[in-house]
């Protein structure tokens, strides 16, 4: 379960990074505005992955080093998104 949780967190972070790269390469204002509106959606997606990891943590009685590192990275990314969105 911990391995599945880690894979889920890695995938969510990878997709977020790819979307960020796509937003930087978008040339039109409409595309950039659309990407900004998706920011809250990404926060929700990352939060779901974080919540799943927390449930696995409780079920399994802990995480391995990989899952622990990914959980911290996911939490930092969520904080960054929500911090930028509130400004």
What does this protein structure show overall?
This protein is mostly helical. The protein is 89% helix and 0% strand. The chain is elongated and about 50 Å long. The N and C termini lie far apart (37 Å).
Which helices and strands appear, and what pairs or packs with what?
Layout: H1 2-25, H2 29-37, H3 39-60, H4 65-86
Helix pairs in contact: 1-2, 1-3, 1-4, 3-4
Going by helix content, strand content and strand pairing, the class is mainly alpha
Provide the helix percentage.
Answer: over 70%
Q: Approximately how much beta-strand content do the residues carry?
A: under 5%
End-to-end separation: 37 Å
The sequence of SSEs as H and E is HHHH
The main β sheet shows up as: none
What form results from the Cα inertia axes? elongated
Radius of gyration: 14 Å
- Give the uncertain stretches in residue-range form: none
Q: Give the averaged pLDDT, no decimals.
A: 85
Number of continuous helical runs: 4
Count of the domains: 1
* Strand segment count: 0
